[in-house]
Amino acid sequence: MSAKPPAPSSRDLARRRQYLRDQRRYKFYKGTWRSLALTGFAAGLLWLATSPVWLVRSPSQINISNNKLLSDEAIQALLPLPYPQPLLKIKPKDLEASLETHAPIAAAAVSRRLLPPGLHIRVKERQPVAIALPDTASPMQKIPAKSAAFRSPGLIDAQGYWMPRDSFQSIGSAASEPTLTVRGMQAGDEKDWQEMYEEIAQSPVKITVIDWTRPSNLILQSELGAVHLGPYGRGFEAQLVALDQLRSLNEKVNPEKVAFIDLHDPTHPIVEILQAASTPASPK
Fold it and tell me: What region holds the POTRA domain (predicted)?
């Protein structure tokens, strides 16, 4: 039978009690200091938020970048910010959403700047590439409801995004209007427009008007005159190539006698002549 361990002495018990008291005291002070630190941190944040040092007092403290069509002042004026405004109370996401409600701004990224206090805003603008005119020959009630955006004159970018014609002027931009006009484009034509505009932008033949009012016959107004293409499709690129090859047409045919150029079949272009009882002429 094993012997029982000796009972702790009174000195050991006293040391044990002292150790436990020290531990409780340490935990108390540690908790107190932690609470004081958190309180101080919160107070510091409150001071930073309200301190005059961290105020956005005027639009001059807001830096704008990546803007070409809109001036810094025009973009600053769009911000729903009363001045002065504590920097830490400004919500960048709210400002981004507000800026993106304006048609000329496709996207915005807002960040706070601590030193010196202010904001930095990076924007992505929509570049208008054409004036969009409605088909005035069609009664308004016959235009699909989804085409409501195209019922009045507007501007479109290379992606086919429609915006009111005064979108830029209304917010103080002096950007000039595009030289290209498209008539009769409707909502739902955006994908075709993206491909069409890319080809037109690369063509050496200057195109000033795209008449899309009759989908069965796309008509271009070019430096060579009116060009009838038939329905828009995969052959559009070949049609523009054929049009480029006709650039010497003015040397062979009086431009005033040309009614239009028929490029339904780009391999066999036809020049319609303004003459009574005339027959189509095929350029050699």
Answer: 57-126
pLDDT tens, 108-129? 999 999 888 999 999 999 999 9
Please state the pTM of the whole predicted model.
0.74
Tokens of 144: 């699909």
Residue at 230 is within a domain: yes
CB 155 within 8 A of CB 175: no
Distance CA 266, CA 187 (A): 28
Could you write out the three-class secondary structure of 110-156?
EEEECCCCEEEEEEEECCEEEEEECCCCCCHHHCCHHHHHHCCCEEE
Amino acid at 77: A
Structural domain contains residue 245: yes
**Side-chain half-sphere exposure of 17, counting CA atoms within 13 A:** 7
- Which of 80, 95, 125 delimits the end of a domain? 125
Q: Which of 125, 151, 171 is the last residue of a domain?
A: 125
Contacts of 122 (CB under 8 A, 6+ apart): 64, 65, 66, 108, 109
Residue-wise pLDDT tens digits, 162-216: 999 999 988 888 778 999 999 999 989 999 999 999 999 999 999 999 999 999 9
